[in-house]
Amino acid sequence: MNSGIPLQYFLILATLMFFAGVYGFLTRRNLITILMSVELILNSVNINFLAFNRYLYPHKLEGMFFSIFVIAVAASEAAVAIAIIINIYRRFTTINVEDVNEMKF
Amino acid sequence: MINFSYTIWILLLPFLMFLLLGLAGHRLKPKLSGLIGTGGLGIITLLSYITAYKYFFTSEKVDEAYQKITALNFTWLQFTDKLHIDMGILLDPISVMMIIVVTTVSFMVHIYSLGYMKGEKGFERFFAFLSLFSFSMLGLVLATNIFQMYIFWELVGVSSFLLIGFYYEKPSAVRASKKAFIVTRFADLGFLIGILILSFNTKTFDFITLTNPTGSAITQGGGIAFLGLSVMTWSMIFVFMGGVGKSAMFPFHIWLPDAMEGPTPVSALIHAATMVVAGVYLVARMFPIYAISAPVALHIVAYVGAFSSLFAAIIACTQTDIKRVLAYSTMSQIGYMMLALGVSGYGGHEGLGYMASMFHLFAHAMFKALLFLGAGAIIHAVHSNDMTDMGGLRKYLPITHITFLIACLTIAGIPPLSGFFSKDEILAAAFNSNKVLFAVEYAVAGLTAFYMFRLYFNIFWGKETHYHHEPHEAPFTMTIPLIILAFGSVVTGFIPFNKLVTSDGKMFESEIELAVAIPSVLIGLLGIGIAYIMYRKESTISDRLVARFKYGYKWAYNKFYIDELYLFVTKKIIFRYISEPVAWFDRHVVDATMNSIANVTQNVSFRIRGFQSGQLQKYAFVFISGAIMLAILFIYLWK
Predict the structure, then answer these.
(1) Which of B345, B365, B473, B522 has a C-alpha 20 to 30 A away from that of B202?
(2) How far is residue B585's CA from residue B432's CA, in Å, rounded to a whole number?
(3) Which of B617, B621, B625 should we substitute to test contact with A (largest number of A Cβ atoms within 10 Å)?
(4) For residue range B85-103, what is the model confidence (pLDDT) as tens digits?
(5) Would the CB atoms of A104 and B612 count as touching at under 8 Å?
């Protein structure tokens, strides 16, 4: 059906990106870095959408639209998240996630 | 048919006054709120006199009998088609008579209180409570059905509680108000049971249906028997228990003497003239049932009345607190009324006792209110309740002296004052039916004259006492009610009760029976004479008598130890053997179960609250590991 790069390669790339994102999300202490990790996770999902769309239903466009949709959501999410981070900085004068722990027992 | 619908204002006005004085009273000047209360009650008094005139002299009689008129009725709680509780106004000879009694005495007491309570803390509160009392008492006597009567019966109890405890900073007043409330409440339990049995049996609450002598309630009631008495009799006995509590008959009399802790005008209004006769009124209201289908219950009424009157008269001879003497005298006179109802039959001349009871109720309200208000004037002047602190007051309080003397002569049954006529009718009724009860009441008549004049001579004659400051006559707001009530005590004897208030609404002929009247006057004079010898001047006769009958005197002085008996039964038996085990069970079993559940929850939550660390990444880690584990579970193990 298709010559070129096989599907598995895309999936492996997406999986690597996804777990890199998860790892970053769990280990980084800087809120900006955590936000970047979330972007990484979203983009790995986008790759999956596009790869499956291309290999399984090449004459349809749902996967494409969905990934555009995800990009739009990611952009607005970044705007909101940065606004939150700015407010956290004003309140605590830090963006270290370990110091922002008021929501506890 | 005359329109009586305006009588709703007799009920509404005092209630509105209570709301006004109770809610906004503290913003008004005390004098103004007193005047509002008194003025409002004046209007109600006027309305009741108009009602009485219209009822007795212009309403149509059917078959020569006064009819029961439902002036107003609306359904309040509809349970089923047949069973509903109404609110309304019933006019019949006894309820019209009672509204005259209640409004007259209440109006006099209001005027009197303007002077007596002047400058007291809570002046407007006092008038608010008086209005509440007038409202509930009028609601009680005008009730169209037994359930409405019960509701107002309890309201009367509450206002009595509030007024006895008016000086709520005084511990004795607080104790007395609690005692009055609990004792009457306990008796009212019987009343409620009686109502339930009665209405279950007859399927109605309505007085007109219940007391119709040819109606189904009376002719068919009480088929089943329990312990040898019909169900109807049992229900009437239970209903009478409520009356016993409210009217302070033996054995529920213990609250009445203590209720004298309240302000004296309250004692005059509630604990002498109106509320305490509610029990008599209740029996009179249900009288056709008592007389026709529950004669055993009626005998109980008679014996309880006779015993209470003798018992209270003996105690009254030994007390020295003037208000307590009057309280026991009240109990004794109410015993008279109960006895008169108990020996009465239904209809015609048989109903002499019924008529006599209502007559005595009316006369008693006048002269006993007068006695209490007079006692209030004396206490106001001397600042003491104890008759040993008094003596020779006739020079200082001329108006009080004369009116008090009139009241004493009235209660002693000296013609032509009202007490003579009513007591004569009662004795005649007792004579016709039961010679033993007649003998008891005859003795009580003598005792009554004796203790009243013991009181009179000790206060106004007797030894010359030196007072710290000269006692002075009460202000005119207090003496005017005394004069009016003294006038009332004189003239009520000439009201033809046999034409107006009878058991079946028809008039009957009655005349003074000289065979009863002459001995009863003689024994009254004898009692006065003994009191004159013993207390007119300082003498040692009474002390010698006390020394002779030391134990009897001590028993009577301590009210035959009934209070102690009650305390023994409640504290030593009920509290120790019932309440304490129950309390132990409650504390150590019921509460302990609940507490342990709460403790376990609390301990567990202390342990696990560390999970809520506030560390975002810990939460994310748990969440992601959970998601991964679920994924593994679904993919590899869920086959």
Answers:
(1) B345
(2) 58
(3) B617
(4) 888 899 888 999 999 999 9
(5) yes
